[in-house]
Write a structure and sequence with these properties.
By secondary structure, the protein is α+β, with helices and mostly antiparallel strands. The protein has one domain: Hotdog Thioesterase (Thiol Ester Dehydrase, Chain A, Roll). The chain has four helices and seven strands; from the N terminus they run βααββββββαα. The strands form two sheets. A five-stranded antiparallel β-sheet has the order 1-4-5-6-3. A two-stranded antiparallel ribbon has the order 2-7. A hairpin with a 4-residue loop joins strand 5 and strand 6. The radius of gyration is 16 Å and the shape is elongated. The relative contact order is 0.23.
């Protein structure tokens, strides 16, 4: 499978009173990784939106393994875990520079029309995007 690795340097404002990254910030980092993954596939999210569609999150899960603190250098590894022509599941790992996994998660998305939020088939309406997802699932890296 194709994977994107995006570097993140933890900023002070991302931490809580315990000195660790506040849990909601991982969802922001997942979004950063997902956007970078799409760019690796050759698509820019803002260009996709110009076609009248958006990709809302339908479900999200986060599992915390080890704390991440201010000043840490981590990476967000992002890949497509499942794709059926309509729904996409992205998986993520936030990894310390040492290789230790800090956080794992998934977000599930569907492509919808921006004006009415009705689902859109990627397979039918965006064949280049569809083939890019299929290729990303098959790519061995």
């Amino acid at each position: 499978m194709k994977m994107n690795k995006t570097s993140i340097q933890v900023r002070y404002q991302e931490t809580d009173m315990m000195g660790v990254v506040y849990h909601a910030n991982y969802l922001i980092w997942f979004e950063i990784g997902r956007t970078a993954f799409l760019e690796d596939l050759g698509f820019k999210y803002h260009e996709i939106e110009k076609q009248g569609v958006v990709s809302p999150v339908m479900d999200a899960s986060v599992s915390f393994k080890h704390p991440v603190r201010y000043g840490d250098d981590v990476s967000v590894n992002t890949w497509v875990d499942e794709y059926d022509g309509l729904r996409i599941t992205y998986s993520y790992q936030v990894q310390h520079a040492t290789g230790e996994i800090a956080v794992e998660g998934q977000t599930k998305h569907v492509i919808v029309k921006k004006d009415n939020f009705r689902p859109v088939s990627i397979r039918r309406n965006f064949p280049e995007w569809h083939h890019a997802y299929l290729s990303a699932l098959e790519t061995s890296e």
